[in-house]
Amino acid sequence: MASDPQSAANQRIVEDLVSRLRRRQLVGSRATALETLLVLRQVVSKTRFSNLDQLVNVIQSVGRRLVEAQPKEHSVGNTVRKVLHHIREEYHTASEQPIVESSFSIAKFVLQGQPRKQATIPRSETRVPLKENDSNDPDSFARVLKPVLMEAIQDVFDELETVYDNISKNAKDHIHSDEIILTLGMSRTVQSFLKSAAHYRNYTVIVAETAPSYGGREMAASLSSAGISTFLVPDSSIYALMSRVNKVILGAHAILANGGMFATSGSLLAATAARSYSTPVVVCAGQFKLTPLWNLYHEYGALDFGDPNAVLGFEEGDLVNKVDVVNPYYDYVRPELLDVFITNYGDHPPSSIYRLLKETYDDEDNEL
Amino acid sequence: MPQAGPKYEPASAEAQSLTKAQKRAEGRARQEQQRAAKAAQKQQPQSGLGAPGTTGSSSSKSKGTVPKKPVSESNKTPSAAASSSKDAPTTLREGAGGLDGLSDGPKSRGLRIFSHFGLPKTPGHQIKGDIHPAIVKLGLQFSEFKICGANARCIATLTAFKMVIQDYVTPPHNTLSRHLMTHLSPQITHLVTARPMSVTMGNAIRQLKLEISGSDIDLPEQDAKDALCQKIDNYIRDRIIIADEVIEDLAVKKIKDEDVVLTYARSSLVEKIILRAHSLNKRFSVIVVDSRPLLEGKALLHSLTSTVPPIPCTYALLPALPSLITDADIVLLGAHSLHANGSVYSRAGTAMVAMLAKEHTVPVMLCCETYKFSETVMLDGFGKNELAPTKFSPASPKSNSNLEVLNPLYDSTPASCITAVVTEVGLIPPTSISSIPLALGRTTL
């Protein structure tokens, strides 16, 4: 798989996405996940490979490039991991070497998590013998595997497409009549969750406007136009109002292996204030945000900083050159501060996130 | 001394009803005139305000009626809300603590729990009775937030009262000690109408009342007035100016070289402490955390960076606090008032700064003069609060009736989040606040 025109085309689309990620022209976990998936689909369809390792290597190297372009967009890496996971799974199914699950033991349960549902259902009924490294016909392996791989990638696509609906479908079980919900920032997931609940319940949302992006204003406008009684407040009044709030609903940027999360800055304040009033904190997030990362030691250097102009603009001319202005994008919220993750596949407490991760990704992909 | 009872509130109904009959008769004619003029004026702006909102006319019709049920989507635009609250004083008494019945109207959809928040006042509020020009001016400065902050408002009020007292002439058949307070009451009411009274003002006014009722009947009027003004000056000097200097001395000792001092918004006292530490050639840096609605931290930033050499400063908005608190060595906060249970009523956001500092075991020093102490107990920042005027609201237009913009000005920090309170009588834990007034002997000025 040298420099043939197909791999050149691959190069091009990968480079295109890399530069858009690097320039922050593409932001947001779902948008980046979708774009990554598009690129991967393209790569899988164009690449020539004659055995599994070749394909996995190609995907991994593409994934590595994308992740390095924007390490804080965790869903890029997650999508790559998920695709790799599906590729291996399809390979195992196609080559009729299903993952050994005959003897079920506690030790295996701890190691591998619950038995995988996908693994038991063969995705494809094609039983063409799969031959690796066929010297006579090097493309035979790819020819057999590619259709099933496309199908698998399409499944990941469908999951991303329906993620909001699936998260929101149980919204009415979480929000009850006359409750006061506090949320902040602009999260599409939370927005659709709240709107879905509004079909069944009459409740009130307090939206903290989340300086300096003021995503909360957009959120408040959107919620109120859907007929939800909405109060827009500055971030400073979160604590003052918390005593009347029944539930805090937050969005996530990435869910970490320990059950903590990265979320838009301001989330940690709200979660900490909620804990001091024992108010439950609910996080709405798609499973594509599950990230096999640990963040036990949250360092200043691990932050991602945004444009300081939004905090202190040049209209404060004489201040600008004397003052350091800080505008971090994300907070790290510890698992102890969170009560539940509402995902597109059910509700999970922070303590069981590690298990979901085991089911979703292969261990060897944790480091791409 | 019938009206010199220990508890009469400046804005309470009985204080108003105590106004002398002759005074009333004299003022009534002019009041009627003013009222008529105001009413005529109001007809125009109201129709003007109602026009832009599509539902303006319907809401102005429903004004003054019983508040609607939450279900009925009564479409009240902010302009309508403002105009209805502006109209209201002619028919309803505008009390000191929030407008109980009035605010139900604009917040008709659902949350009556917010209805007790003091509504932001429109600047051109009505002048009732015989108000001294200095008070009228001060009222405007208060409602426009030109004078803002517990200390500044207290000093400004007392200074204005000195002018009122100097211009006061005791009517015949009266004594200054009995009549002056009835003259001051409407002035106080006017200030309260402009913006809810701060605890500092309340404490100072209570002290002033004591002094007035205790002033010697046999003293010539001018001497009595001079004595009162002297007492006011002493109060400002002892309880605020000198107290601040003592607090500066105490707090500055806690700032060491290479320290990172974190503060929130802008407290005049914290500003003085930081500047003093700088003038003592301590090398430290400051993190100023700020938030809407007032963004007062920028003013602090200006004063800290205009020193020579400038103090190294970092500026961030409140959501960025968790990333910065780990760097801080000490948190200095100001207060609006301190309550008997040790909770601190201060600028909205202070509670979260203190909470996070406690979480990261950063000492929180609250800087506060003892005259900010209030005997009341405060359980959360919700029971008593005040809303910022609409000019501090985000510029984005309100598109629909379901959206309400709320800008509370204060919150309440529990005592558990405060490491120490720096007062002019020393560093004390917040729970010991209640012993301070006794120790100071409350009856002295």
Automatic annotation (TrEMBL), chain A:
Q: What is this protein called?
A: Translation initiation factor eIF2B subunit beta
Q: What keyword terms does UniProt attach to this protein? A: Cytoplasm, Initiation factor, Protein biosynthesis
Q: What is the lineage of its organism?
A: Eukaryota, Fungi, Dikarya, Basidiomycota, Agaricomycotina
* Pfam families per the UniProt record, alphabetical: IF-2B
How it assembles, according to the record, is: Component of the translation initiation factor 2B (eIF2B) complex which is a heterodecamer of two sets of five different subunits: alpha, beta, gamma, delta and epsilon. Subunits alpha, beta and delta comprise a regulatory subcomplex and subunits epsilon and gamma comprise a catalytic subcomplex. Within the complex, the hexameric regulatory complex resides at the center, with the two heterodimeric catalytic subcomplexes bound on opposite sides.
Instruction: State the Gene Ontology terms under molecular function.
Output: guanyl-nucleotide exchange factor activity; translation initiation factor activity
Similarity annotation:
Belongs to the eIF-2B alpha/beta/delta subunits family.
Query: Which cellular components does GO assign to this protein?
Result: cytosol; eukaryotic translation initiation factor 2B complex
The compartments listed are: Cytoplasm, Cytosol
Instruction: Give the source's domain of life in one word.
Output: Eukaryota
From TrEMBL, chain B:
List, alphabetically, the GO terms of the cellular component aspect: cytosol
Localization recorded for this chain is: Cytoplasm, Cytosol
Which of UniProt's keywords are assigned here? Cytoplasm, Initiation factor, Protein biosynthesis
UniProt cross-references to SUPFAM superfamilies, sorted A to Z: NagB/RpiA/CoA transferase-like
Give the Low complexity compositional bias ranges.
Answer: 52-69
Q: Where is the composition biased (Basic and acidic residues)?
A: 23-35
Q: What main location does UniProt list?
A: cytoplasm
The record's section on InterPro entries has:
IF-2B-related (IPR000649), IF_2B-like_C (IPR042529), NagB/RpiA_transferase-like (IPR037171)
State one molecular function term (GO): translation initiation factor activity
One Pfam family here: IF-2B
Output the Gene3D superfamilies linked to this UniProt entry: Translation initiation factor eif-2b, domain 2
Give the residue ranges for region: Disordered.
1-107
Subunit record text: Component of the translation initiation factor 2B (eIF2B) complex which is a heterodecamer of two sets of five different subunits: alpha, beta, gamma, delta and epsilon. Subunits alpha, beta and delta comprise a regulatory subcomplex and subunits epsilon and gamma comprise a catalytic subcomplex. Within the complex, the hexameric regulatory complex resides at the center, with the two heterodimeric catalytic subcomplexes bound on opposite sides.
| PANTHER family according to UniProt | TRANSLATION INITIATION FACTOR EIF-2B, TRANSLATION INITIATION FACTOR EIF-2B SUBUNIT DELTA
Q: Which family is annotated?
A: Belongs to the eIF-2B alpha/beta/delta subunits family.
Tell me what this protein is called.
Translation initiation factor eIF2B subunit delta
Which taxonomic lineage does the organism of this UniProt entry have?
A: Eukaryota, Fungi, Dikarya, Basidiomycota, Agaricomycotina
